[in-house]
Amino acid sequence: MSATLGTMIKQLQPDWSILIFEQLSEVGQESSNPWNNAGTGHAALAELNYMPEAPDGSLETSRAVNINEQFQVSRQFWSSLVKEGVLPDPTSFINPTPHMTFVRGEDNVDYLRRRYELLKNEPLFEGIEFSDDPKVIYKWAPLLMRQRQKGEKIAATRIETGTDVDFGSLTHQLIDYLVANGAELHTESEVKKLKKQKDGSWNVVTRDRVGNTPHTYNAKFVFVGAGGHALPLLQKAHIPEIKGFGGFPISGQFFRTDNPAVVAQHQAKVYGKAAVGAPPMSVPHLDTRVVDGQASLLFGPYAGFSPKFLKSSSWLDLPASIRLHNIGPMLAVARDNVDLMKYLIGELLASKKKKLEALQEFMPTAKAEDWYLITAGQRVQVMKKDPKRGGVLQFGTEVITAADGSIAGLLGASPGASTAVPIMIDLVKRCFPQQYPEWEKKLGKLIPSFGTKLNENKRQAEKAIESTAKVLELERG
Protein backbone atom coordinates (compact mmCIF):
# COMPACT_ATOMS: atom_id res chain seq x y z
CA MET A 1 0.00 0.00 0.00
CA SER A 2 2.72 2.48 0.96
CA ALA A 3 4.77 1.62 -2.13
CA THR A 4 1.70 2.08 -4.32
CA LEU A 5 0.82 5.45 -2.78
CA GLY A 6 4.41 6.68 -2.99
CA THR A 7 4.68 5.67 -6.64
CA MET A 8 1.34 7.30 -7.45
CA ILE A 9 2.35 10.58 -5.80
CA LYS A 10 5.73 10.52 -7.55
CA GLN A 11 3.88 10.15 -10.86
CA LEU A 12 1.35 12.88 -10.06
CA GLN A 13 3.60 15.36 -8.23
CA PRO A 14 7.26 14.50 -8.87
CA ASP A 15 8.61 17.58 -7.04
CA TRP A 16 7.26 16.44 -3.63
CA SER A 17 9.73 14.88 -1.22
CA ILE A 18 8.96 11.41 0.17
CA LEU A 19 10.36 9.67 3.26
CA ILE A 20 9.70 5.98 3.94
CA PHE A 21 10.20 4.35 7.34
CA GLU A 22 10.49 0.56 7.66
CA GLN A 23 11.17 -1.09 11.00
CA LEU A 24 12.65 -4.25 9.44
CA SER A 25 15.91 -4.55 7.51
CA GLU A 26 14.10 -4.48 4.16
CA VAL A 27 10.64 -3.68 2.80
CA GLY A 28 7.84 -6.10 1.98
CA GLN A 29 8.66 -8.69 4.64
CA GLU A 30 5.28 -8.88 6.37
CA SER A 31 1.97 -9.37 4.53
CA SER A 32 3.52 -8.49 1.15
CA ASN A 33 6.15 -11.22 1.41
CA PRO A 34 5.26 -13.86 -1.21
CA TRP A 35 5.27 -16.70 1.34
CA ASN A 36 3.03 -14.79 3.76
CA ASN A 37 0.09 -14.73 1.31
CA ALA A 38 -1.32 -16.84 -1.50
CA GLY A 39 -0.50 -14.29 -4.22
CA THR A 40 -3.99 -14.32 -5.68
CA GLY A 41 -4.72 -11.37 -7.91
CA HIS A 42 -8.11 -11.04 -6.22
CA ALA A 43 -10.64 -10.39 -8.97
CA ALA A 44 -13.56 -12.44 -7.54
CA LEU A 45 -13.07 -14.97 -10.32
CA ALA A 46 -12.99 -17.87 -7.86
CA GLU A 47 -13.54 -16.49 -4.34
CA LEU A 48 -17.05 -17.49 -3.30
CA ASN A 49 -17.12 -15.17 -0.26
CA TYR A 50 -17.40 -12.22 -2.68
CA MET A 51 -20.72 -13.59 -3.91
CA PRO A 52 -22.44 -15.18 -0.89
CA GLU A 53 -25.83 -16.83 -0.95
CA ALA A 54 -28.52 -14.76 0.79
CA PRO A 55 -30.79 -16.40 3.42
CA ASP A 56 -33.52 -16.68 0.79
CA GLY A 57 -31.13 -18.49 -1.58
CA SER A 58 -30.68 -15.59 -3.99
CA LEU A 59 -27.35 -14.52 -5.47
CA GLU A 60 -26.14 -11.08 -6.45
CA THR A 61 -23.09 -10.15 -8.54
CA SER A 62 -22.41 -6.52 -7.58
CA ARG A 63 -19.65 -7.10 -5.00
CA ALA A 64 -17.82 -9.61 -7.20
CA VAL A 65 -18.02 -7.22 -10.16
CA ASN A 66 -16.85 -4.29 -8.02
CA ILE A 67 -13.75 -6.17 -6.81
CA ASN A 68 -12.95 -7.22 -10.37
CA GLU A 69 -13.32 -3.59 -11.48
CA GLN A 70 -10.82 -2.56 -8.81
CA PHE A 71 -8.31 -5.22 -9.82
CA GLN A 72 -8.53 -4.08 -13.45
CA VAL A 73 -7.56 -0.58 -12.28
CA SER A 74 -4.49 -2.05 -10.57
CA ARG A 75 -3.61 -3.99 -13.74
CA GLN A 76 -3.82 -0.83 -15.84
CA PHE A 77 -1.64 1.11 -13.40
CA TRP A 78 0.99 -1.66 -13.40
CA SER A 79 0.85 -1.78 -17.20
CA SER A 80 1.57 1.94 -17.43
CA LEU A 81 4.53 1.52 -15.07
CA VAL A 82 5.86 -1.32 -17.23
CA LYS A 83 5.62 0.90 -20.32
CA GLU A 84 7.54 3.64 -18.48
CA GLY A 85 10.23 1.22 -17.34
CA VAL A 86 9.36 1.65 -13.66
CA LEU A 87 8.64 -2.09 -13.58
CA PRO A 88 11.13 -3.49 -16.11
CA ASP A 89 10.07 -7.16 -16.14
CA PRO A 90 6.38 -7.95 -15.53
CA THR A 91 7.06 -11.68 -15.24
CA SER A 92 9.03 -10.93 -12.07
CA PHE A 93 5.80 -10.07 -10.22
CA ILE A 94 2.79 -11.33 -12.20
CA ASN A 95 2.13 -14.57 -14.09
CA PRO A 96 -0.91 -16.04 -15.88
CA THR A 97 -2.62 -18.61 -13.64
CA PRO A 98 -6.18 -19.88 -14.20
CA HIS A 99 -8.57 -19.26 -11.30
CA MET A 100 -10.93 -22.09 -10.38
CA THR A 101 -13.62 -22.88 -7.83
CA PHE A 102 -14.14 -26.47 -6.72
CA VAL A 103 -17.07 -27.65 -4.59
CA ARG A 104 -18.43 -30.94 -3.29
CA GLY A 105 -21.98 -31.94 -2.37
CA GLU A 106 -25.30 -31.46 -4.13
CA ASP A 107 -26.20 -28.13 -2.51
CA ASN A 108 -22.79 -26.61 -3.28
CA VAL A 109 -22.92 -27.86 -6.87
CA ASP A 110 -26.31 -26.19 -7.29
CA TYR A 111 -24.97 -22.96 -5.78
CA LEU A 112 -21.92 -22.95 -8.06
CA ARG A 113 -24.07 -23.55 -11.15
CA ARG A 114 -26.34 -20.63 -10.26
CA ARG A 115 -23.30 -18.42 -9.58
CA TYR A 116 -21.88 -19.33 -12.99
CA GLU A 117 -25.17 -18.60 -14.77
CA LEU A 118 -25.10 -15.04 -13.40
CA LEU A 119 -21.40 -14.32 -13.87
CA LYS A 120 -21.14 -15.59 -17.44
CA ASN A 121 -23.23 -12.59 -18.52
CA GLU A 122 -20.87 -10.07 -16.88
CA PRO A 123 -18.27 -8.64 -19.33
CA LEU A 124 -15.42 -8.81 -16.79
CA PHE A 125 -16.10 -12.53 -16.29
CA GLU A 126 -16.21 -13.41 -19.96
CA GLY A 127 -14.77 -16.85 -20.62
CA ILE A 128 -15.81 -18.38 -17.31
CA GLU A 129 -16.56 -22.12 -17.66
CA PHE A 130 -18.60 -24.51 -15.53
CA SER A 131 -18.51 -28.29 -15.37
CA ASP A 132 -19.77 -31.08 -13.14
CA ASP A 133 -18.13 -33.69 -15.39
CA PRO A 134 -15.16 -35.39 -13.64
CA LYS A 135 -13.37 -35.85 -16.97
CA VAL A 136 -13.49 -32.13 -17.74
CA ILE A 137 -12.39 -31.16 -14.24
CA TYR A 138 -9.53 -33.67 -14.53
CA LYS A 139 -8.29 -31.85 -17.63
CA TRP A 140 -8.41 -28.54 -15.77
CA ALA A 141 -6.74 -29.75 -12.55
CA PRO A 142 -5.77 -33.43 -12.42
CA LEU A 143 -4.69 -33.35 -8.76
CA LEU A 144 -8.28 -32.63 -7.73
CA MET A 145 -9.53 -35.83 -9.35
CA ARG A 146 -6.92 -38.56 -8.98
CA GLN A 147 -8.20 -41.29 -6.62
CA ARG A 148 -11.37 -39.31 -5.87
CA GLN A 149 -14.35 -41.48 -4.92
CA LYS A 150 -16.58 -42.24 -7.89
CA GLY A 151 -20.12 -40.92 -7.77
CA GLU A 152 -19.24 -37.94 -5.55
CA LYS A 153 -21.19 -34.80 -6.47
CA ILE A 154 -18.61 -32.24 -7.60
CA ALA A 155 -18.43 -29.15 -9.77
CA ALA A 156 -15.90 -26.54 -10.80
CA THR A 157 -15.63 -23.25 -12.60
CA ARG A 158 -12.54 -22.00 -14.41
CA ILE A 159 -11.45 -18.76 -15.99
CA GLU A 160 -8.09 -18.61 -17.72
CA THR A 161 -7.43 -14.88 -17.29
CA GLY A 162 -6.55 -15.22 -13.58
CA THR A 163 -3.11 -14.28 -12.25
CA ASP A 164 -0.54 -15.12 -9.59
CA VAL A 165 1.08 -12.00 -8.11
CA ASP A 166 4.31 -11.73 -6.14
CA PHE A 167 3.45 -8.65 -4.09
CA GLY A 168 6.85 -8.79 -2.37
CA SER A 169 8.67 -8.37 -5.67
CA LEU A 170 6.24 -5.64 -6.74
CA THR A 171 6.78 -3.77 -3.46
CA HIS A 172 10.59 -3.95 -3.80
CA GLN A 173 10.49 -2.68 -7.38
CA LEU A 174 8.20 0.25 -6.55
CA ILE A 175 10.36 1.26 -3.58
CA ASP A 176 13.52 0.94 -5.72
CA TYR A 177 11.91 3.31 -8.23
CA LEU A 178 11.06 5.81 -5.50
CA VAL A 179 14.57 5.74 -4.01
CA ALA A 180 16.13 6.11 -7.47
CA ASN A 181 13.97 9.21 -7.92
CA GLY A 182 14.81 11.00 -4.71
CA ALA A 183 12.78 9.32 -1.96
CA GLU A 184 14.56 8.54 1.33
CA LEU A 185 14.23 5.01 2.69
CA HIS A 186 15.02 4.48 6.37
CA THR A 187 15.14 0.79 7.29
CA GLU A 188 15.56 -0.56 10.84
CA SER A 189 13.67 2.60 11.84
CA GLU A 190 10.66 2.33 14.16
CA VAL A 191 8.04 5.09 14.39
CA LYS A 192 7.50 5.81 18.09
CA LYS A 193 5.33 8.95 18.02
CA LEU A 194 3.13 10.94 15.67
CA LYS A 195 2.55 14.44 17.00
CA LYS A 196 0.53 17.10 15.24
CA GLN A 197 1.97 20.63 15.13
CA LYS A 198 0.17 23.97 15.33
CA ASP A 199 0.67 24.59 11.61
CA GLY A 200 -1.16 21.31 10.79
CA SER A 201 1.98 19.35 9.93
CA TRP A 202 3.18 16.24 11.78
CA ASN A 203 6.34 15.46 13.68
CA VAL A 204 7.26 11.83 13.07
CA VAL A 205 9.49 10.62 15.90
CA THR A 206 11.52 7.51 15.07
CA ARG A 207 14.17 5.43 16.81
CA ASP A 208 16.89 3.40 15.13
CA ARG A 209 16.59 -0.27 16.03
CA VAL A 210 20.39 -0.46 15.88
CA GLY A 211 21.93 2.06 18.27
CA ASN A 212 18.56 3.32 19.58
CA THR A 213 19.21 6.83 18.21
CA PRO A 214 16.06 9.03 18.11
CA HIS A 215 15.15 11.21 15.12
CA THR A 216 12.37 13.69 14.40
CA TYR A 217 11.06 14.47 10.92
CA ASN A 218 8.40 16.97 9.93
CA ALA A 219 5.81 16.14 7.25
CA LYS A 220 2.79 17.91 5.79
CA PHE A 221 1.15 14.53 5.14
CA VAL A 222 1.56 11.11 6.75
CA PHE A 223 0.34 7.76 5.46
CA VAL A 224 0.34 4.84 7.86
CA GLY A 225 0.71 1.74 5.69
CA ALA A 226 2.01 -0.53 8.42
CA GLY A 227 -0.20 -3.57 7.91
CA GLY A 228 -1.53 -4.83 11.24
CA HIS A 229 0.50 -2.21 13.09
CA ALA A 230 -1.46 0.65 11.47
CA LEU A 231 -4.03 0.60 14.30
CA PRO A 232 -1.60 1.34 17.18
CA LEU A 233 0.19 3.99 15.11
CA LEU A 234 -3.07 5.78 14.31
CA GLN A 235 -3.96 5.55 17.99
CA LYS A 236 -0.65 7.26 18.81
CA ALA A 237 -1.64 10.09 16.45
CA HIS A 238 -4.73 10.68 18.66
CA ILE A 239 -6.99 11.51 15.72
CA PRO A 240 -10.70 11.35 16.62
CA GLU A 241 -11.46 9.27 13.50
CA ILE A 242 -9.72 6.21 15.00
CA LYS A 243 -11.99 6.16 18.05
CA GLY A 244 -14.12 3.02 18.31
CA PHE A 245 -11.80 0.95 16.08
CA GLY A 246 -10.11 -2.20 17.31
CA GLY A 247 -8.13 -4.99 15.70
CA PHE A 248 -8.78 -8.74 15.71
CA PRO A 249 -5.56 -10.56 14.72
CA ILE A 250 -5.75 -13.91 12.93
CA SER A 251 -2.66 -15.98 12.23
CA GLY A 252 -2.36 -18.91 9.88
CA GLN A 253 -0.31 -21.56 8.13
CA PHE A 254 -0.01 -23.01 4.64
CA PHE A 255 1.12 -26.39 3.46
CA ARG A 256 3.80 -25.92 0.80
CA THR A 257 5.43 -28.29 -1.66
CA ASP A 258 8.35 -27.65 -3.99
CA ASN A 259 8.44 -31.22 -5.34
CA PRO A 260 8.71 -30.74 -9.14
CA ALA A 261 6.77 -33.95 -9.82
CA VAL A 262 3.79 -32.66 -7.82
CA VAL A 263 4.03 -29.00 -8.86
CA ALA A 264 4.05 -29.88 -12.57
CA GLN A 265 0.60 -31.48 -12.27
CA HIS A 266 -1.23 -28.36 -11.11
CA GLN A 267 -1.35 -24.95 -12.78
CA ALA A 268 -4.22 -23.06 -11.17
CA LYS A 269 -5.52 -21.35 -8.07
CA VAL A 270 -8.44 -23.45 -6.88
CA TYR A 271 -10.76 -22.06 -4.21
CA GLY A 272 -13.26 -24.08 -2.22
CA LYS A 273 -16.00 -23.08 0.19
CA ALA A 274 -15.35 -21.96 3.77
CA ALA A 275 -16.39 -24.21 6.64
CA VAL A 276 -19.38 -23.12 8.73
CA GLY A 277 -18.20 -20.50 11.24
CA ALA A 278 -14.90 -19.93 9.43
CA PRO A 279 -13.81 -16.40 8.49
CA PRO A 280 -13.82 -15.58 4.74
CA MET A 281 -10.01 -15.36 4.72
CA SER A 282 -9.87 -19.06 5.71
CA VAL A 283 -11.43 -20.38 2.50
CA PRO A 284 -9.37 -23.47 1.54
CA HIS A 285 -7.46 -23.19 -1.71
CA LEU A 286 -4.79 -25.10 -3.62
CA ASP A 287 -2.60 -22.58 -5.39
CA THR A 288 0.19 -22.38 -7.88
CA ARG A 289 2.78 -19.83 -6.61
CA VAL A 290 5.57 -18.40 -8.73
CA VAL A 291 8.35 -16.75 -6.72
CA ASP A 292 11.70 -15.80 -8.27
CA GLY A 293 10.70 -17.73 -11.37
CA GLN A 294 10.18 -20.99 -9.47
CA ALA A 295 6.75 -22.62 -9.13
CA SER A 296 5.50 -24.18 -5.88
CA LEU A 297 2.11 -25.19 -4.55
CA LEU A 298 0.40 -23.86 -1.43
CA PHE A 299 -2.65 -25.23 0.36
CA GLY A 300 -4.48 -23.54 3.18
CA PRO A 301 -4.78 -21.35 5.00
CA TYR A 302 -5.12 -23.02 8.38
CA ALA A 303 -6.34 -20.23 10.63
CA GLY A 304 -5.15 -19.66 14.15
CA PHE A 305 -4.96 -16.96 16.78
CA SER A 306 -2.06 -14.85 17.95
CA PRO A 307 -2.30 -11.50 19.79
CA LYS A 308 0.49 -10.13 17.58
CA PHE A 309 -0.42 -7.54 14.93
CA LEU A 310 2.66 -8.43 12.83
CA LYS A 311 4.74 -11.61 12.63
CA SER A 312 7.72 -9.58 13.89
CA SER A 313 5.92 -7.60 16.60
CA SER A 314 4.96 -8.01 20.27
CA TRP A 315 2.70 -10.54 22.01
CA LEU A 316 1.25 -7.50 23.82
CA ASP A 317 -0.10 -5.87 20.63
CA LEU A 318 -3.74 -6.81 21.19
CA PRO A 319 -4.03 -5.86 24.89
CA ALA A 320 -2.00 -2.69 24.29
CA SER A 321 -4.51 -1.59 21.61
CA ILE A 322 -7.48 -1.59 24.01
CA ARG A 323 -8.87 1.86 24.82
CA LEU A 324 -11.96 3.11 26.63
CA HIS A 325 -13.45 4.10 23.27
CA ASN A 326 -13.03 0.67 21.63
CA ILE A 327 -13.58 -1.78 24.46
CA GLY A 328 -17.37 -1.71 23.92
CA PRO A 329 -17.20 -2.63 20.21
CA MET A 330 -14.56 -5.28 20.96
CA LEU A 331 -16.72 -6.92 23.64
CA ALA A 332 -19.72 -6.83 21.29
CA VAL A 333 -17.67 -8.59 18.60
CA ALA A 334 -16.60 -11.24 21.14
CA ARG A 335 -20.25 -11.76 22.11
CA ASP A 336 -21.46 -12.12 18.52
CA ASN A 337 -18.62 -14.30 17.18
CA VAL A 338 -18.56 -17.32 19.49
CA ASP A 339 -18.63 -19.67 16.48
CA LEU A 340 -15.56 -17.95 15.06
CA MET A 341 -13.68 -18.35 18.33
CA LYS A 342 -14.59 -22.05 18.48
CA TYR A 343 -13.38 -22.44 14.91
CA LEU A 344 -10.06 -20.72 15.64
CA ILE A 345 -9.50 -22.82 18.77
CA GLY A 346 -10.23 -25.96 16.74
CA GLU A 347 -7.73 -24.87 14.11
CA LEU A 348 -5.09 -24.17 16.77
CA LEU A 349 -5.53 -27.63 18.27
CA ALA A 350 -5.56 -29.46 14.93
CA SER A 351 -2.66 -31.85 14.46
CA LYS A 352 -0.51 -31.99 11.33
CA LYS A 353 -2.32 -35.22 10.44
CA LYS A 354 -5.69 -33.44 10.69
CA LYS A 355 -4.40 -30.64 8.50
CA LEU A 356 -3.17 -33.15 5.93
CA GLU A 357 -6.66 -34.68 5.84
CA ALA A 358 -8.05 -31.26 4.88
CA LEU A 359 -5.55 -31.12 2.02
CA GLN A 360 -6.51 -34.66 0.96
CA GLU A 361 -10.16 -33.59 0.66
CA PHE A 362 -8.92 -31.30 -2.12
CA MET A 363 -6.11 -33.52 -3.37
CA PRO A 364 -6.71 -37.19 -2.51
CA THR A 365 -3.17 -38.25 -3.55
CA ALA A 366 -1.39 -35.79 -1.21
CA LYS A 367 1.44 -37.44 0.75
CA ALA A 368 2.82 -36.08 4.01
CA GLU A 369 6.45 -36.36 2.86
CA ASP A 370 5.83 -33.91 -0.03
CA TRP A 371 4.40 -31.09 2.08
CA TYR A 372 5.69 -28.91 4.91
CA LEU A 373 4.00 -26.18 6.96
CA ILE A 374 4.94 -22.51 6.66
CA THR A 375 3.60 -19.64 8.75
CA ALA A 376 1.42 -17.15 6.90
CA GLY A 377 1.32 -13.41 7.50
CA GLN A 378 -0.71 -11.91 10.33
CA ARG A 379 -4.08 -10.46 9.35
CA VAL A 380 -5.71 -7.89 11.61
CA GLN A 381 -9.44 -7.64 10.92
CA VAL A 382 -11.30 -4.43 11.69
CA MET A 383 -13.58 -4.17 14.71
CA LYS A 384 -15.65 -1.01 14.83
CA LYS A 385 -18.73 0.59 16.35
CA ASP A 386 -22.16 -0.41 15.11
CA PRO A 387 -25.32 1.45 16.15
CA LYS A 388 -27.42 -1.72 16.29
CA ARG A 389 -25.09 -4.34 17.75
CA GLY A 390 -22.53 -2.20 19.52
CA GLY A 391 -19.68 -3.52 17.40
CA VAL A 392 -19.01 -5.54 14.23
CA LEU A 393 -16.12 -7.57 12.85
CA GLN A 394 -15.30 -6.49 9.30
CA PHE A 395 -13.35 -8.68 6.88
CA GLY A 396 -12.53 -6.02 4.31
CA THR A 397 -10.26 -2.97 4.25
CA GLU A 398 -10.98 0.48 5.64
CA VAL A 399 -9.16 3.77 5.05
CA ILE A 400 -9.07 6.07 8.07
CA THR A 401 -8.54 9.72 7.14
CA ALA A 402 -8.27 12.72 9.45
CA ALA A 403 -10.80 15.48 8.81
CA ASP A 404 -8.12 17.84 7.46
CA GLY A 405 -6.57 15.12 5.27
CA SER A 406 -3.15 15.49 6.91
CA ILE A 407 -2.88 11.85 7.98
CA ALA A 408 -4.43 8.60 6.77
CA GLY A 409 -3.97 4.90 7.31
CA LEU A 410 -5.28 1.58 6.10
CA LEU A 411 -6.83 -1.05 8.35
CA GLY A 412 -7.97 -4.57 7.47
CA ALA A 413 -6.95 -7.29 5.05
CA SER A 414 -8.46 -8.98 1.97
CA PRO A 415 -8.72 -8.13 -0.90
CA GLY A 416 -6.00 -5.70 0.11
CA ALA A 417 -2.98 -5.56 -2.19
CA SER A 418 -4.91 -6.53 -5.33
CA THR A 419 -7.05 -3.41 -4.98
CA ALA A 420 -4.27 -1.12 -3.71
CA VAL A 421 -4.41 1.23 -6.69
CA PRO A 422 -8.13 2.19 -6.51
CA ILE A 423 -7.86 2.41 -2.72
CA MET A 424 -4.97 4.86 -3.06
CA ILE A 425 -6.82 6.87 -5.72
CA ASP A 426 -9.68 7.29 -3.26
CA LEU A 427 -7.18 8.29 -0.57
CA VAL A 428 -5.47 11.03 -2.63
CA LYS A 429 -8.88 12.37 -3.60
CA ARG A 430 -9.83 12.68 0.07
CA CYS A 431 -6.48 13.95 1.36
CA PHE A 432 -5.47 16.29 -1.47
CA PRO A 433 -8.71 17.95 -2.65
CA GLN A 434 -6.90 21.04 -3.97
CA GLN A 435 -4.48 19.11 -6.17
CA TYR A 436 -6.84 16.33 -7.20
CA PRO A 437 -8.64 18.14 -10.08
CA GLU A 438 -5.27 18.69 -11.77
CA TRP A 439 -4.19 15.10 -11.06
CA GLU A 440 -7.26 13.59 -12.71
CA LYS A 441 -5.82 14.12 -16.19
CA LYS A 442 -2.60 12.33 -15.22
CA LEU A 443 -4.58 9.48 -13.65
CA GLY A 444 -6.52 9.17 -16.89
CA LYS A 445 -3.25 8.60 -18.76
CA LEU A 446 -2.03 6.02 -16.23
CA ILE A 447 -5.40 4.26 -16.09
CA PRO A 448 -7.27 4.41 -19.44
CA SER A 449 -10.61 3.37 -17.91
CA PHE A 450 -10.33 5.99 -15.15
CA GLY A 451 -13.73 7.40 -14.20
CA THR A 452 -15.71 4.68 -15.98
CA LYS A 453 -16.99 1.19 -15.18
CA LEU A 454 -15.51 -1.43 -17.48
CA ASN A 455 -18.27 -3.92 -16.76
CA GLU A 456 -20.83 -1.54 -18.25
CA ASN A 457 -19.13 -1.63 -21.67
CA LYS A 458 -18.27 -5.07 -23.04
CA ARG A 459 -15.95 -3.80 -25.76
CA GLN A 460 -14.09 -1.53 -23.35
CA ALA A 461 -13.72 -4.41 -20.87
CA GLU A 462 -12.31 -6.68 -23.58
CA LYS A 463 -9.90 -3.98 -24.73
CA ALA A 464 -8.64 -3.29 -21.19
CA ILE A 465 -8.08 -6.98 -20.39
CA GLU A 466 -6.39 -7.64 -23.75
CA SER A 467 -4.12 -4.60 -23.64
CA THR A 468 -2.96 -5.17 -20.05
CA ALA A 469 -2.44 -8.88 -20.75
CA LYS A 470 -0.15 -7.96 -23.65
CA VAL A 471 1.92 -5.43 -21.67
CA LEU A 472 2.13 -7.64 -18.56
CA GLU A 473 2.98 -10.68 -20.71
CA LEU A 474 -0.08 -12.60 -19.52
CA GLU A 475 -1.13 -13.88 -22.92
CA ARG A 476 -1.35 -17.66 -22.95
CA GLY A 477 0.10 -19.56 -25.89
Structure write-up:
- The strands form 5 sheets. Strands 3, 4, 5, 12, 13, 14, 15, 16, 17 and 18 form a 10-stranded mixed β-sheet that branches. This protein has a 3-stranded antiparallel β-sheet with strand order 8-9-10.
- It has 477 residues and is an alpha+beta fold.
- The protein is built from 15 helices and 20 strands.
- Helix 1 packs across helix 13 and helix 2 crosses helix 15.
List the helices and strands and how they pair.
Blueprint: H1 2-12, E1 19-21, H2 62-84, E2 94-96, E3 99-104, H3 106-119, E4 129-131, H4 134-140, H5 142-145, E5 154-159, E6 163-165, H6 167-180, E7 184-186, E8 189-196, E9 202-208, E10 214-219, E11 222-224, H7 230-237, E12 246-257, H8 260-263, E13 269-271, E14 285-291, E15 294-304, H9 317-320, H10 327-336, H11 338-349, H12 352-362, E16 372-375, E17 379-386, E18 390-394, E19 397-401, E20 407-412, H13 420-431, H14 436-446, H15 458-471
Parallel strand pairs: 1-7, 3-13, 11-20
Antiparallel strand pairs: 2-6, 3-5, 4-5, 8-9, 9-10, 12-15, 12-16, 12-17, 13-14, 14-15, 17-18, 19-20
Helix pairs in contact: 1-6, 1-13, 2-13, 2-15
- Average pLDDT metric: 94
Question: Can you tell me the residue ranges where pLDDT is under 50 for at least 5 consecutive residues?
Answer: none
Strand content: 15-25%
Oligomer: single chain
The gross shape turns out to be globular
Q: Which structural class do you get from the secondary structure elements?
A: alpha+beta
User: What's the tally of helices?
Assistant: 15
Rounded to an integer, what's the Rg over CA atoms?
Answer: 22 Å
**Termini distance?**
32 Å
